[in-house]
């Protein structure tokens, strides 16, 4: 590794440390620590939202998936922009900001809990975050550690510990202000690097038209038919085509990845809380355009380059991407960068990958810490103490848990695309458990507390059952195998095709159905479990 690379990394870490310290110095109250004092600049908010959304999960994990599944993954980019930015900001963002301010809510679970006057809702929502977000965080940690391992040639576990330690320090000290300041820097680095990555890919292949033409022709190359025979059986029809409709790969792409992540973004706690960091709807309007462009570039480039990596690697090594990466899906993008990015610019890409992981991971640590400290310990259990110190204590616990999961993930089957799957699992959980109650909180004045509660519990339960016992991902989690001796309950049965259906397609309808069924039952009995005056207060100014 050159002196230049070391110098660039040191400068980047120094600036990150300075921004974390700046956040620490500007944090005077618990509101500053939890939601940045509700006075964040719209550009910083947009970059923080985008950088939190886009991590090594999107670039390394899903970029690697695109190398295997093709450009059909660009449908996820469409949903990320249309749903994750425009619908999120317009339909959810403005009401979340105003209601959060009216109710003096500092976290996503607290917003739900105060809206429905329920410690149970706040505690249950926080428990979901505390227990299951470490799975998502472990995927992000693994992505960062994999890239450091590939780039520096050091062991996975040393990479993991160093990476977590750096992020943990500035999040623990600086709170939300430290997180958002560093997110803005990291977002800028990521944007520049990904634009350069797209240019390198297309220039290396002779332009946009030539690149896509070569990618289309690659599928028909008889020399690689043996390498992709397994994918063809799963429904693969080429890198510029969607998988065969109804095939296992089609179900995986559409129902699990595109819909699971594309819809799940609406109910991500670490993203929803960003809406509460600005002082007015005007800031949200100003942030929306820059956020949309950022997400379009970040995900679109990752998926395009992931697909095109097959052409470049086959041209230069005689192997398609997954084979050149020794069967490790999560190593495809790092391999592409190390092979095709000029060495003088390599340090910038190193920073961009670190930035992508650090920006998301810092927000996850902050969200999990507030869930454990403020929502569970302080609010649900009614314990008293210094909010910032309690939150930092909760943060320390979840950092350890997430690190242990990422450590153990190194022993999972490498070809399974663990990073993308861990990410998808958590997005599907939040969709099922949080989306119906979130919509109800913001838009349905007459929604009873008990209906919202039962819907959230039912969605979480349905997600857990389908993810750990029915879906094909259950074989990764090993719980079903531990109990029944089979990867999934439907393995080797006439119902085995159910394992292809994404959890969102099952758990979200269950959550919605239970919510409205309980609401109907309560309405028939003409019982109201919430005071009208409180509901009217919640919707003041909306």
TrEMBL record:
<dbReference type="GO" id="GO:0005298">
    <property type="term" value="F:proline:sodium symporter activity"/>
</dbReference>
<keyword id="KW-0813">Transport</keyword>
<dbReference type="GO" id="GO:0015824">
    <property type="term" value="P:proline transport"/>
</dbReference>
<keyword id="KW-0812">Transmembrane</keyword>
<keyword id="KW-1003">Cell membrane</keyword>
<feature type="transmembrane region" description="Helical">
    <location>
        <begin position="389"/>
        <end position="410"/>
    </location>
</feature>
<dbReference type="GO" id="GO:0005886">
    <property type="term" value="C:plasma membrane"/>
</dbReference>
<dbReference type="InterPro" id="IPR050277">
    <property type="entry name" value="Sodium:Solute_Symporter"/>
</dbReference>
<feature type="transmembrane region" description="Helical">
    <location>
        <begin position="120"/>
        <end position="141"/>
    </location>
</feature>
<feature type="transmembrane region" description="Helical">
    <location>
        <begin position="184"/>
        <end position="205"/>
    </location>
</feature>
<protein>
    <submittedName>
        <fullName>SSS family solute:Na+ symporter</fullName>
    </submittedName>
</protein>
<keyword id="KW-0739">Sodium transport</keyword>
<feature type="transmembrane region" description="Helical">
    <location>
        <begin position="451"/>
        <end position="469"/>
    </location>
</feature>
<feature type="transmembrane region" description="Helical">
    <location>
        <begin position="498"/>
        <end position="522"/>
    </location>
</feature>
<feature type="transmembrane region" description="Helical">
    <location>
        <begin position="6"/>
        <end position="24"/>
    </location>
</feature>
<feature type="transmembrane region" description="Helical">
    <location>
        <begin position="287"/>
        <end position="309"/>
    </location>
</feature>
<keyword id="KW-0406">Ion transport</keyword>
<keyword id="KW-0769">Symport</keyword>
<dbReference type="InterPro" id="IPR001734">
    <property type="entry name" value="Na/solute_symporter"/>
</dbReference>
<keyword id="KW-0915">Sodium</keyword>
<feature type="transmembrane region" description="Helical">
    <location>
        <begin position="422"/>
        <end position="444"/>
    </location>
</feature>
<comment type="similarity">
    <text>Belongs to the sodium:solute symporter (SSF) (TC 2.A.21) family.</text>
</comment>
<dbReference type="GO" id="GO:0015193">
    <property type="term" value="F:L-proline transmembrane transporter activity"/>
</dbReference>
<keyword id="KW-1133">Transmembrane helix</keyword>
<feature type="transmembrane region" description="Helical">
    <location>
        <begin position="44"/>
        <end position="67"/>
    </location>
</feature>
<dbReference type="InterPro" id="IPR038377">
    <property type="entry name" value="Na/Glc_symporter_sf"/>
</dbReference>
<keyword id="KW-0472">Membrane</keyword>
<feature type="transmembrane region" description="Helical">
    <location>
        <begin position="344"/>
        <end position="368"/>
    </location>
</feature>
<feature type="transmembrane region" description="Helical">
    <location>
        <begin position="153"/>
        <end position="172"/>
    </location>
</feature>
<feature type="transmembrane region" description="Helical">
    <location>
        <begin position="249"/>
        <end position="267"/>
    </location>
</feature>
<feature type="transmembrane region" description="Helical">
    <location>
        <begin position="73"/>
        <end position="92"/>
    </location>
</feature>
<dbReference type="Pfam" id="PF00474">
    <property type="entry name" value="SSF"/>
</dbReference>
């Amino acid at each position: 590794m050159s002196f230049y690379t070391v110098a660039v990394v040191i400068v980047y870490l120094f600036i990150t440390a300075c921004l974390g310290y700046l956040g620490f110095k500007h944090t005077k109250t618990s509101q500053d620590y939890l939601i940045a004092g509700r006075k964040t600049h719209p550009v910083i908010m947009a970059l923080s939202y985008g950088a939190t959304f886009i991590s090594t999960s999107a670039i390394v994990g899903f970029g690697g998936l695109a190398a295997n599944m093709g450009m059909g993954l660009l449908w996820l980019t469409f949903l990320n922009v249309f749903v994750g930015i425009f619908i999120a900001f317009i339909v959810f963002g403005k009401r979340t900001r105003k209601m959060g301010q009216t109710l003096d809510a500092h976290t996503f679970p607290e917003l739900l809990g105060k809206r429905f006057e329920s410690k149970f809702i706040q505690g249950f929502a926080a428990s979901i975050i505390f227990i299951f977000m470490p799975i998502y965080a472990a995927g992000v940690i693994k992505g960062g550690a994999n890239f450091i391992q590939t780039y520096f040639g050091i062991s996975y576990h040393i990479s993991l510990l160093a990476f977590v330690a750096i992020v943990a320090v500035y999040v623990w000290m600086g709170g939300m202000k430290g997180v958002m300041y560093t997110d803005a820097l990291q977002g800028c680095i990521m944007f520049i690097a990904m634009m350069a990555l797209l240019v390198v890919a297309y220039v290396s292949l002779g332009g946009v038209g030539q690149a896509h033409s070569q990618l289309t022709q690659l599928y028909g190359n008889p020399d690689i038919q043996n390498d992709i025979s397994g994918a063809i059986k799963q429904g693969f029809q080429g890198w510029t085509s969607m998988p065969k409709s109804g095939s296992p790969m089609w179900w995986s792409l559409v129902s699990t990845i595109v819909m699971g992540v594309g819809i799940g973004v609406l109910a991500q706690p670490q993203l929803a809380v960003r809406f509460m960091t600005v002082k007015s709807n005007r800031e949200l309007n100003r942030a929306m355009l820059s956020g949309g462009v950022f997400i379009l570039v970040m995900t679109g480039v990752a998926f395009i380059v992931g697909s095109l990596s097959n052409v470049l690697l086959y041209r230069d090594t005689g192997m398609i991407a997954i084979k050149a990466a020794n069967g490790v899906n999560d190593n495809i993008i790092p391999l592409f960068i190390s092979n095709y990015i000029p060495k003088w610019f390599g340090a910038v890409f190193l920073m961009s990958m670190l930035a992508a992981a650090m920006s998301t991971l810092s927000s996850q640590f902050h969200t999990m810490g507030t869930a454990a400290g403020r929502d569970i310990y302080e609010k649900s259990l009614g314990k008293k103490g210094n909010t910032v110190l309690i939150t930092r204590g909760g943060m320390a616990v979840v950092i350890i848990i997430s690190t242990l999961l990422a450590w153990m993930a190194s022993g999972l089957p490498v070809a399974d695309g663990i990073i993308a799957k861990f990410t998808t699992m958590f997005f599907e959980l939040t969709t099922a458990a949080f989306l119906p109650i979130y919509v109800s909180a913001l838009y349905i004045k007459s929604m009873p507390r008990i209906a919202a509660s039962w819907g959230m519990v039912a969605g979480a339960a349905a997600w857990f059952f389908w993810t750990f016992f029915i879906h094909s991902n259950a074989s990764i989690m090993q719980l079903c195998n531990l109990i029944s001796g089979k990867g999934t309950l439907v393995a080797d049965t006439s119902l085995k095709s159910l394992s292809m259906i994404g959890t969102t397609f099952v758990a979200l309808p269950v959550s919605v159905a239970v919510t409205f069924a309980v609401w109907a039952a309560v309405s028939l009995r003409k019982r109201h479990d919430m005071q009208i005056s409180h509901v009217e207060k919640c919707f003041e100014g909306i």
